[in-house]
Design brief:
By secondary structure, this protein is an alpha/beta fold. 41% of the residues lie in helices and 22% in strands. It has an 8-stranded mixed sheet with strand order 1-2-3-6-7-8-9-10, sandwiched between helices. The chain has a two-stranded antiparallel sheet with strand order 4-5. Strand 6, helix 5 and strand 7 form a beta-alpha-beta unit.
């Protein structure tokens, strides 16, 4: 699947809407499901073109999940234990719902999420791919590092050209967990520039750091604030909207 700005916006909007409380989700028909189990929340949509699996991101009760920096062993490599536990809590329900909609596992599945939800989407994609589901795309926003080098290589090989990892401006979450703890990124980096939020595909890390340097030098007291603001899911929705408008104007 080639990168689609329109699909990126759709996924960003879904990743924002999944933050609604469960009783705020209006499930108008049997083509939607909302799974909430022990803090893990997943919204599934059986659309005409694909099935969407949307993981909810970080909330207050997930704080200790994010702090579990120890890794757990999987068939795909060593993965952040907290992220993996978050997926496993709802794993049975997600698979059963997908099998009900797509018993032959032949309909495209698109996974998405923001922050913790982004990490969960990638891990879930690995398991669904192993079961034989057709993973057509993984669109993530503010994705942290998920696992070790072996896991990153597995994801890049399994989902080559399908995993699009968006980073907005000074968002600090993609910088954690730290490299020296053995965590590595996977997927193609799609960076929304600090200046004018122009989308830069496959931006090298050195370019990202150079863009951030002037703010660190000129306004270091705002560094922490920018990191938090740029991580907000609303910022990703806005950036995807602007990128789609730019593409249409060309």
């Amino acid at each position: 699947m080639a990168y689609s700005p329109a699909l990126a916006l759709t996924c960003a909007e879904y990743s924002a809407k999944v933050y609604l409380e469960p009783d705020q989700h209006v499930l108008a028909d049997s083509n939607q499901a909302f799974i909430s189990r022990f803090g893990t929340q997943v919204w599934l949509i059986n659309a005409a073109e694909a099935v969407y699996v949307i993981f909810r991101g970080t909330s207050d009760e997930d704080f200790f999940t994010d702090l579990k920096f120890r890794k757990t062993e999987t068939d795909f490599g060593r993965v952040h234990r907290g992220f993996h536990d978050y997926v496993m809590l709802a794993q049975w329900e997600v698979i059963q719902q997908l099998l009900q909609w797509v018993p032959r596992m032949d309909k495209p599945v698109i996974l998405t999420g923001h922050s913790l939800g982004a990490a969960a989407a990638v891990i879930e994609a690995c398991y669904l791919n192993e079961l034989g589901f057709d993973i057509a795309g993984i669109y993530t926003f503010g994705e942290p590092r998920i696992g070790n080098g072996r896991f990153a290589r597995f994801v890049d090989d399994a989902f080559d050209g399908k995993h699009f990892r968006h980073v907005n401006g000074l968002d600090g979450v993609p910088m954690i967990p730290p490299l020296h703890w053995g965590f590595r990124h996977c997927g193609q980096r799609f960076y929304f520039s600090t200046y004018k939020q122009q989308l830069i595909r496959n931006a090298p890390l050195c370019q990202v750091m150079l863009e951030r340097l002037p703010i660190l030098i000129k306004r270091p007291w705002k560094w922490g604030t920018y990191k938090i603001i740029d991580h907000a899911v609303a910022g990703y929705v806005g950036a995807c909207e602007r990128n789609l408008e730019t593409v249409r104007e060309k």
